[in-house]
Amino acid sequence: MADTLLSQQDKFRRRDRAKQFLDRIAPVLLSLGVFVGVAAVTSLLFTVITTGWSRLSWNLIFAYPSANPQTAGMRSAFLGSFWTVSLSALVSIPLGIASALYLTEWSSHRRLRMFLEFNMANLAGVPSIIFGLVGLSILTYGLGLGRSIIAGAFTLGIMTLPLVTVSAAEAIKSVPEALKHGAYALGATKLQVTRHIILPRSLPMMMTGAILAISRAIGEAAPILVISGLLFIRTDPTSIFDRFTVMPLQIFNWVSRPQPAFQELSSAAIIVLLALLMMFNAAAIAIRYRYQRRVML
Protein backbone atom coordinates (compact mmCIF):
# COMPACT_ATOMS: atom_id res chain seq x y z
CA MET A 1 0.00 0.00 0.00
CA ALA A 2 2.80 2.40 0.91
CA ASP A 3 4.63 1.57 -2.32
CA THR A 4 1.52 2.34 -4.31
CA LEU A 5 1.12 5.72 -2.61
CA LEU A 6 4.79 6.56 -3.23
CA SER A 7 4.50 5.66 -6.92
CA GLN A 8 1.41 7.83 -7.29
CA GLN A 9 3.20 10.72 -5.59
CA ASP A 10 6.12 10.30 -7.98
CA LYS A 11 3.73 10.45 -10.92
CA PHE A 12 2.13 13.62 -9.59
CA ARG A 13 5.56 15.21 -9.05
CA ARG A 14 6.64 14.37 -12.61
CA ARG A 15 3.42 15.86 -13.94
CA ASP A 16 3.94 19.00 -11.89
CA ARG A 17 7.50 19.32 -13.16
CA ALA A 18 6.33 18.88 -16.73
CA LYS A 19 3.64 21.53 -16.24
CA GLN A 20 6.14 23.93 -14.68
CA PHE A 21 8.54 23.34 -17.55
CA LEU A 22 5.78 24.04 -20.09
CA ASP A 23 4.79 27.19 -18.19
CA ARG A 24 8.37 28.43 -18.44
CA ILE A 25 8.97 27.47 -22.07
CA ALA A 26 5.58 28.56 -23.48
CA PRO A 27 6.23 32.34 -23.24
CA VAL A 28 9.62 31.83 -24.88
CA LEU A 29 8.14 29.86 -27.78
CA LEU A 30 5.29 32.35 -28.24
CA SER A 31 7.68 35.28 -28.17
CA LEU A 32 9.92 33.54 -30.68
CA GLY A 33 6.97 32.96 -33.00
CA VAL A 34 5.92 36.61 -32.78
CA PHE A 35 9.50 37.72 -33.41
CA VAL A 36 9.87 35.50 -36.48
CA GLY A 37 6.58 36.75 -37.95
CA VAL A 38 7.30 40.42 -37.29
CA ALA A 39 10.87 40.08 -38.57
CA ALA A 40 9.71 38.42 -41.80
CA VAL A 41 7.09 41.09 -42.49
CA THR A 42 9.49 43.90 -41.55
CA SER A 43 12.26 42.59 -43.79
CA LEU A 44 9.82 42.19 -46.68
CA LEU A 45 8.49 45.72 -46.26
CA PHE A 46 12.01 47.09 -45.91
CA THR A 47 13.09 45.38 -49.14
CA VAL A 48 10.05 46.61 -51.05
CA ILE A 49 10.35 50.18 -49.80
CA THR A 50 14.10 50.49 -50.39
CA THR A 51 13.74 49.02 -53.88
CA GLY A 52 10.73 50.98 -55.07
CA TRP A 53 10.88 54.28 -53.16
CA SER A 54 12.99 55.98 -55.81
CA ARG A 55 10.42 55.09 -58.51
CA LEU A 56 7.46 56.59 -56.68
CA SER A 57 6.04 59.47 -58.68
CA TRP A 58 2.77 60.73 -60.09
CA ASN A 59 3.81 59.23 -63.40
CA LEU A 60 3.41 55.76 -61.85
CA ILE A 61 -0.30 56.40 -61.25
CA PHE A 62 -1.21 58.65 -64.17
CA ALA A 63 0.84 57.05 -66.98
CA TYR A 64 -0.25 54.02 -68.98
CA PRO A 65 1.75 50.76 -69.17
CA SER A 66 4.64 50.83 -71.59
CA ALA A 67 7.53 48.67 -72.75
CA ASN A 68 9.83 51.50 -71.64
CA PRO A 69 10.26 51.28 -67.84
CA GLN A 70 11.18 54.96 -67.61
CA THR A 71 7.72 56.05 -68.82
CA ALA A 72 5.62 53.07 -67.73
CA GLY A 73 2.78 53.50 -65.26
CA MET A 74 -0.29 51.65 -64.07
CA ARG A 75 -3.14 54.09 -64.64
CA SER A 76 -5.41 51.48 -66.25
CA ALA A 77 -4.65 48.92 -63.51
CA PHE A 78 -5.22 51.49 -60.74
CA LEU A 79 -8.62 52.44 -62.17
CA GLY A 80 -9.49 48.79 -62.75
CA SER A 81 -8.74 47.92 -59.13
CA PHE A 82 -10.79 50.87 -57.92
CA TRP A 83 -13.78 49.86 -60.05
CA THR A 84 -13.73 46.17 -59.17
CA VAL A 85 -13.12 46.59 -55.44
CA SER A 86 -15.75 49.32 -55.07
CA LEU A 87 -18.38 47.33 -56.97
CA SER A 88 -17.53 44.11 -55.13
CA ALA A 89 -17.93 45.93 -51.79
CA LEU A 90 -21.35 47.18 -52.93
CA VAL A 91 -22.28 43.57 -53.64
CA SER A 92 -20.77 41.69 -50.70
CA ILE A 93 -21.33 44.04 -47.75
CA PRO A 94 -25.12 44.63 -48.08
CA LEU A 95 -25.80 41.02 -49.08
CA GLY A 96 -23.53 39.71 -46.30
CA ILE A 97 -25.26 41.79 -43.62
CA ALA A 98 -28.71 40.83 -44.95
CA SER A 99 -27.74 37.13 -45.01
CA ALA A 100 -26.43 37.34 -41.45
CA LEU A 101 -29.65 39.01 -40.25
CA TYR A 102 -31.73 36.28 -41.89
CA LEU A 103 -29.65 33.46 -40.43
CA THR A 104 -29.54 34.84 -36.88
CA GLU A 105 -32.85 36.69 -36.44
CA TRP A 106 -35.39 35.96 -39.16
CA SER A 107 -35.00 32.31 -40.13
CA SER A 108 -37.47 30.00 -38.39
CA HIS A 109 -36.21 26.76 -39.96
CA ARG A 110 -33.49 25.37 -37.73
CA ARG A 111 -32.19 22.75 -40.15
CA LEU A 112 -32.07 25.20 -43.05
CA ARG A 113 -30.24 27.73 -40.88
CA MET A 114 -27.68 25.16 -39.77
CA PHE A 115 -27.18 24.01 -43.36
CA LEU A 116 -26.61 27.56 -44.60
CA GLU A 117 -24.27 28.45 -41.73
CA PHE A 118 -22.22 25.31 -42.33
CA ASN A 119 -21.87 26.03 -46.04
CA MET A 120 -21.06 29.70 -45.46
CA ALA A 121 -18.24 28.73 -43.13
CA ASN A 122 -16.91 26.27 -45.71
CA LEU A 123 -17.13 28.77 -48.57
CA ALA A 124 -14.99 31.21 -46.61
CA GLY A 125 -12.07 28.79 -46.98
CA VAL A 126 -12.48 27.90 -50.67
CA PRO A 127 -9.42 28.86 -52.80
CA SER A 128 -9.96 32.03 -54.80
CA ILE A 129 -9.14 30.34 -58.10
CA ILE A 130 -12.33 28.26 -57.72
CA PHE A 131 -14.40 31.44 -57.55
CA GLY A 132 -12.59 32.66 -60.65
CA LEU A 133 -13.51 29.51 -62.57
CA VAL A 134 -17.14 29.75 -61.41
CA GLY A 135 -17.27 33.41 -62.46
CA LEU A 136 -15.74 32.57 -65.82
CA SER A 137 -18.25 29.81 -66.55
CA ILE A 138 -21.39 31.50 -65.21
CA LEU A 139 -20.85 35.26 -65.55
CA THR A 140 -18.47 35.51 -68.48
CA TYR A 141 -19.87 32.78 -70.71
CA GLY A 142 -23.20 31.78 -69.16
CA LEU A 143 -24.70 35.26 -68.76
CA GLY A 144 -22.69 36.76 -71.61
CA LEU A 145 -21.04 39.49 -69.51
CA GLY A 146 -17.69 38.81 -71.18
CA ARG A 147 -14.35 39.64 -69.63
CA SER A 148 -15.68 42.88 -68.21
CA ILE A 149 -15.45 44.87 -65.00
CA ILE A 150 -18.88 43.76 -63.84
CA ALA A 151 -17.92 40.09 -64.21
CA GLY A 152 -14.74 40.59 -62.18
CA ALA A 153 -16.54 42.68 -59.55
CA PHE A 154 -19.31 40.11 -59.08
CA THR A 155 -16.71 37.34 -58.82
CA LEU A 156 -14.86 39.22 -56.07
CA GLY A 157 -18.17 40.05 -54.39
CA ILE A 158 -19.23 36.40 -54.32
CA MET A 159 -15.76 35.41 -53.08
CA THR A 160 -15.86 37.85 -50.14
CA LEU A 161 -19.56 37.32 -49.33
CA PRO A 162 -19.00 34.34 -46.94
CA LEU A 163 -16.38 36.29 -45.01
CA VAL A 164 -18.71 39.25 -44.52
CA THR A 165 -21.65 36.99 -43.64
CA VAL A 166 -19.78 34.99 -40.99
CA SER A 167 -18.31 38.09 -39.32
CA ALA A 168 -21.67 39.91 -39.41
CA ALA A 169 -23.45 36.90 -37.89
CA GLU A 170 -20.96 36.82 -35.01
CA ALA A 171 -21.46 40.56 -34.50
CA ILE A 172 -25.24 40.13 -34.32
CA LYS A 173 -24.91 37.28 -31.82
CA SER A 174 -22.89 39.58 -29.54
CA VAL A 175 -25.87 41.92 -29.04
CA PRO A 176 -27.28 41.33 -25.51
CA GLU A 177 -30.54 39.39 -25.54
CA ALA A 178 -31.88 41.60 -22.73
CA LEU A 179 -31.96 44.61 -25.05
CA LYS A 180 -33.95 42.74 -27.69
CA HIS A 181 -36.35 41.23 -25.15
CA GLY A 182 -36.87 44.66 -23.59
CA ALA A 183 -37.74 46.14 -26.98
CA TYR A 184 -40.19 43.32 -27.69
CA ALA A 185 -41.75 43.83 -24.27
CA LEU A 186 -42.39 47.47 -25.14
CA GLY A 187 -44.26 46.42 -28.28
CA ALA A 188 -41.55 46.86 -30.91
CA THR A 189 -41.78 44.77 -34.07
CA LYS A 190 -38.97 42.56 -35.31
CA LEU A 191 -38.13 45.11 -38.01
CA GLN A 192 -37.92 47.90 -35.43
CA VAL A 193 -35.71 45.80 -33.17
CA THR A 194 -33.45 45.01 -36.10
CA ARG A 195 -33.21 48.64 -37.16
CA HIS A 196 -32.88 50.36 -33.78
CA ILE A 197 -31.26 47.72 -31.54
CA ILE A 198 -29.37 45.09 -33.53
CA LEU A 199 -27.84 47.08 -36.38
CA PRO A 200 -26.53 50.06 -34.37
CA ARG A 201 -24.84 47.78 -31.82
CA SER A 202 -23.47 45.20 -34.25
CA LEU A 203 -22.42 47.49 -37.09
CA PRO A 204 -19.01 48.40 -35.58
CA MET A 205 -18.05 44.72 -35.49
CA MET A 206 -19.53 44.19 -38.94
CA MET A 207 -17.10 46.75 -40.32
CA THR A 208 -14.28 44.43 -39.28
CA GLY A 209 -15.61 41.88 -41.74
CA ALA A 210 -15.90 44.60 -44.36
CA ILE A 211 -12.24 45.56 -43.79
CA LEU A 212 -11.14 41.95 -44.25
CA ALA A 213 -13.30 41.58 -47.36
CA ILE A 214 -11.90 44.73 -48.99
CA SER A 215 -8.38 43.72 -48.03
CA ARG A 216 -8.80 40.32 -49.65
CA ALA A 217 -10.49 41.67 -52.77
CA ILE A 218 -7.92 44.37 -53.51
CA GLY A 219 -5.01 41.92 -53.33
CA GLU A 220 -6.53 39.04 -55.29
CA ALA A 221 -4.90 38.13 -58.59
CA ALA A 222 -5.99 34.53 -59.29
CA PRO A 223 -9.74 35.07 -59.95
CA ILE A 224 -9.10 38.25 -61.94
CA LEU A 225 -6.43 36.42 -63.97
CA VAL A 226 -9.06 33.82 -64.91
CA ILE A 227 -11.71 36.43 -65.71
CA SER A 228 -9.61 39.10 -67.44
CA GLY A 229 -6.27 37.53 -68.31
CA LEU A 230 -2.96 39.35 -68.63
CA LEU A 231 -3.90 42.40 -70.69
CA PHE A 232 -1.95 45.37 -71.98
CA ILE A 233 -4.53 48.14 -71.64
CA ARG A 234 -3.79 51.77 -72.42
CA THR A 235 -7.33 53.15 -72.05
CA ASP A 236 -9.42 54.18 -69.07
CA PRO A 237 -12.47 52.05 -68.19
CA THR A 238 -15.57 54.15 -68.84
CA SER A 239 -18.21 51.46 -68.39
CA ILE A 240 -18.74 48.40 -66.24
CA PHE A 241 -18.72 46.35 -69.44
CA ASP A 242 -15.19 47.42 -70.50
CA ARG A 243 -12.15 45.16 -70.46
CA PHE A 244 -9.90 45.77 -67.46
CA THR A 245 -6.83 44.81 -65.51
CA VAL A 246 -5.95 45.27 -61.85
CA MET A 247 -2.89 46.26 -59.86
CA PRO A 248 -1.87 42.73 -58.71
CA LEU A 249 -1.81 41.58 -62.35
CA GLN A 250 0.24 44.63 -63.38
CA ILE A 251 2.68 43.90 -60.55
CA PHE A 252 2.92 40.28 -61.67
CA ASN A 253 3.58 41.43 -65.22
CA TRP A 254 6.45 43.69 -64.11
CA VAL A 255 7.94 41.15 -61.71
CA SER A 256 8.10 38.52 -64.45
CA ARG A 257 10.35 40.74 -66.58
CA PRO A 258 14.13 40.43 -66.21
CA GLN A 259 15.03 44.14 -66.37
CA PRO A 260 15.95 45.66 -62.97
CA ALA A 261 13.94 48.79 -63.83
CA PHE A 262 10.73 46.76 -63.96
CA GLN A 263 11.63 45.17 -60.62
CA GLU A 264 11.81 48.66 -59.14
CA LEU A 265 8.49 49.55 -60.75
CA SER A 266 6.86 46.47 -59.24
CA SER A 267 8.12 47.45 -55.77
CA ALA A 268 6.78 50.98 -56.22
CA ALA A 269 3.42 49.54 -57.34
CA ILE A 270 3.32 47.36 -54.21
CA ILE A 271 3.79 50.49 -52.09
CA VAL A 272 0.88 52.18 -53.89
CA LEU A 273 -1.26 49.06 -53.44
CA LEU A 274 -0.52 49.01 -49.71
CA ALA A 275 -1.34 52.73 -49.44
CA LEU A 276 -4.66 52.19 -51.23
CA LEU A 277 -5.43 49.28 -48.91
CA MET A 278 -4.68 51.45 -45.88
CA MET A 279 -7.05 54.12 -47.23
CA PHE A 280 -9.89 51.62 -47.50
CA ASN A 281 -9.12 50.30 -44.01
CA ALA A 282 -8.95 53.82 -42.55
CA ALA A 283 -12.36 54.65 -44.00
CA ALA A 284 -13.88 51.48 -42.53
CA ILE A 285 -12.24 52.12 -39.15
CA ALA A 286 -13.56 55.70 -39.13
CA ILE A 287 -17.08 54.45 -39.79
CA ARG A 288 -16.73 51.83 -37.06
CA TYR A 289 -15.44 54.39 -34.55
CA ARG A 290 -18.27 56.77 -35.39
CA TYR A 291 -20.94 54.13 -34.75
CA GLN A 292 -19.21 52.96 -31.59
CA ARG A 293 -19.39 56.48 -30.17
CA ARG A 294 -23.04 56.78 -31.20
CA VAL A 295 -23.90 53.51 -29.44
CA MET A 296 -22.01 54.55 -26.29
CA LEU A 297 -23.88 57.84 -26.21
Automatic annotation (TrEMBL):
- List all membrane-crossing ranges: 21-49, 82-103, 123-143, 149-172, 210-233, 265-287
> What are the alphabetically sorted keywords of the record?
Cell membrane, Membrane, Transmembrane, Transmembrane helix, Transport
Domain named ABC transmembrane type-1 is located at 78-283
State the annotated membrane topology for this chain. Multi-pass membrane protein
Main subcellular location: membrane
- Any one Gene Ontology BP term: phosphate ion transmembrane transport
Pfam families from the xrefs?
BPD_transp_1
Q: Which GO terms describe its molecular function?
A: phosphate transmembrane transporter activity
What GO cellular-component annotations does this UniProt entry give? plasma membrane
Where is this protein found?
A: Cell membrane
Against PANTHER family, the record matches this protein to: PHOSPHATE TRANSPORT SYSTEM PERMEASE PROTEIN PSTA (PTHR43470:SF5), PHOSPHATE TRANSPORT SYSTEM PERMEASE PROTEIN PSTA-RELATED (PTHR43470)
Instruction: Name the protein family.
Output: Belongs to the binding-protein-dependent transport system permease family. CysTW subfamily.
The molecule here is called Phosphate transport system permease protein PstA
What does UniProt list as this organism's lineage? Archaea, Nitrososphaerota, Candidatus Caldarchaeales, Candidatus Caldarchaeaceae, Candidatus Caldarchaeum
Gene name?
Answer: pstA
